[in-house]
Amino acid sequence: MDGQGKQELNNFKIHQVNVERAPKVVAQLTAAANELSDFSKASLSNAEKMDTRLKTEQEDLVKFKGSKPKFVAQVLKETANITEKEQLISLLSRLTRLDPANKAVVKKLDQTLGKIPATPEPAPKAGKKKGK
């Protein structure tokens, strides 16, 4: 067999291996495409939720006559009702963007992130005993 024949035989073997691998490669590419599609749908959903959240925030700010500090202070009071840590972190992060000077928000965010220990609830004061 001459040099050209050997080259053609080698090319044929490479092509044969590629044909054998093709179904696996197609399956991997299909899985990757599906994953990207799911990610794209989730990202779009998150963007729509954020848009709704920002519109609601703007409407709420109008109730406070545009005063971001007053709005932030009120929302901060309501954070006690939030039990999901990720949701709380997201909200507190947003509040720090609206009113970066609010030290209570920064402190609560740091506590939630575990950067500083949470302040324990104050113990109820002992009342006077009746009958004395």
Radius of gyration: 30 Å
Structural class: mainly alpha
Give the ordered list of helices and strands: HHHH
Oligomer: single chain
Report the total helices. 4
Count of all domains? 2
Q: Give the overall shape, derived from the CA principal axes.
A: elongated
Q: Estimate what percentage of residues fall within beta strands.
A: under 5%
Percentage of residues in helical conformation: over 70%
Overall pLDDT confidence: 86
Q: Top keywords for this entry?
A:
132 residues, mainly alpha, 2 domains, elongated
Task: Provide a short characterization of the protein structure.
The protein is an all-alpha fold and 132 residues long. Helices cover 73% and strands 0% of the residues.
Describe the 3D structure.
The protein is mainly α and 132 residues long. It has two domains: 50 residues; 54 residues, no CATH class. The chain has four helices and no strands. Helix 2 runs antiparallel to helix 3 and helix 3 runs antiparallel to helix 4. The chain is elongated. The N and C termini lie far apart (118 Å).
